[in-house]
Amino acid sequence: MGITLRSLEDADLDQLHAWESDPRAVAMAAFTRADPADRSSFDAHYARNRNDPDVTMRAVDDDHGLAGMIASFTVAGDRELTYWVDPARWGRGVASAALAAFLQVEPLRPLFARVAEHNVGSAAVLVRAGFVHVDSEVSHAAGLGRDVVEHVYRLDA
What we know:
Elements: E1 4-7, H1 13-20, H2 23-29, H3 39-50, E2 56-62, E3 65-75, E4 78-85, H4 94-105, E5 111-116, H5 120-128, E6 132-141, E7 146-155
Parallel strand pairs: 4-5
Antiparallel strand pairs: 1-2, 2-3, 3-4, 5-7, 6-7
């Protein structure tokens, strides 16, 4: 499977919105917008982030086209990572390959990532890439409407 990263295009947004509002994916990610189906909130989020020079955002393509997105951004002085993969492609190595490619694009370290405790697949992707679990905290998961244990991972090199 070949993975490539490219600029996120307007034409990608309909598919990303569909994935980001999929109930199964929202349950796994947990930390989403309060109403993941709200298209205007989705559009505002992506417009803001695509126009922010501090955000590095890429579309993830595999051999069959758009497979997800991956990005980094700064919050409270920490560089953080986020990604979203088509639920139909989970468990096929897309996230791992996209993260490996993205780590060549994003030079800043340390790099942090946050994962809901129940999202063991995403945690495994991070560990395989060299991230180390450094903290856990209870955070409000707007997408689920309740508090969830969130694990924090860090990559130093």
